[in-house]
Amino acid sequence: MKFTAEQIAGILEGVVVGNPAAEVYKLAKIEEGTEGSLTFLANPKYLNYIYTTQATITIVNATFEPEQELTTTLIKVEDAYKSFSKLLEYYNQVKLMKSGIEQPSVISDNVTYGENLYLGSFCYIGANVKIGNNVKIYPNSFVGDNVIIGDDTILFAGVRVYSETEIGKKCVIHSGSIIGSDGFGFAPNEEGVYNKVPQIGNVIIEDNVDIGACTTIDRATLGSTVIRKGVKLDNQIQIAHNVEIGENTVIASQTGVAGSTKIGKNCMIGGQVGIVGHITIGNNVKIQAQSGVSRSVKDFETIQGSPAFNYGDFSKSYVVFKNLPKIVKDIEDLKRKK
């Protein structure tokens, strides 16, 4: 896929300085630019590279004036960094612009779908599924019975969506993720043998949710596991049955949230955090990486540690802990002097 400098300038509302017919087909860092690549200069720290880069086209701020001869064609814009980000988004949209139903694939009875559906090969769509407009389901994906998928949502290759799941508009679910698998529910009988408790609830994912690769969200025992709008989940996260995650909360990879815990809005949760079940995390909470959360947390708290507690207190305590051998030695020296 090739673009000319003139076409790119049109997308970015920029001005071409150099060859408007110059063509690019790939992106590169300015220091690694080669012929046929597009790059950008936003950070003054990289200014010297613009005189040596082999990139065919470089996006720069409108205020940039070269002090040496250039071999690259410039596109001058108001903000080079924002314009390059906009171009990346545009490029991604073009790259994902697929439609049609590939074969072999299976579409069961009473399935309805909107315009511009892309269904990759070796997909299975269960009975009574409702799919909106501009949905893309990449190869080797499974969508169970009675699932609802909203407009403009993307399921990348190998996603598994179990029955009864509801997915909103403009969601992205990356490869290997499993939505709606059974919650971890077992009860011991008189002999101590664990019997499975049926998990008959579902998962509800609201609009504009991003779910990373190989993340699992379990269905509720009763009711729903709910991921509110704007939530961003990283790769390899475990969300247990009946958990609720509030709007615009972000969670980094390898975090696990146990059953029936409620997490508020606008929270930031670091990687490898473990959160016990049946507690409440307030709004605007920050949890540092590798923390173990065993109690409910109030709004606006920042916590760290295992068990996690106030971040400021943790930092002070860690200084003491780090110096503990010296402190013990000083105490022993004082004892000997008595």
UniProtKB/TrEMBL annotation:
Catalytic activity: a UDP-3-O-[(3R)-3-hydroxyacyl]-alpha-D-glucosamine + a (3R)-hydroxyacyl-[ACP] = a UDP-2-N,3-O-bis[(3R)-3-hydroxyacyl]-alpha-D-glucosamine + holo-[ACP] + H(+)
Annotated metabolic or biological route of this protein: Bacterial outer membrane biogenesis; LPS lipid A biosynthesis
Alphabetically ordered keywords of this record: Acyltransferase, Lipid A biosynthesis, Lipid biosynthesis, Lipid metabolism, Repeat, Transferase
Record-annotated UDP-3-O-[3-hydroxymyristoyl] glucosamine N-acyltransferase non-repeat region domain positions: 23-89
Enzyme class: transferase
GO-annotated cellular components: membrane
Matches recorded under InterPro entries: Hexapep, LpxD, Trimer_LpxA-like_sf, UDP_GlcNAc_AcTrfase_non-rep
Subunit relationships: Homotrimer.
HAMAP family: LpxD (MF_00523)
Protein name stated in the entry: UDP-3-O-acylglucosamine N-acyltransferase
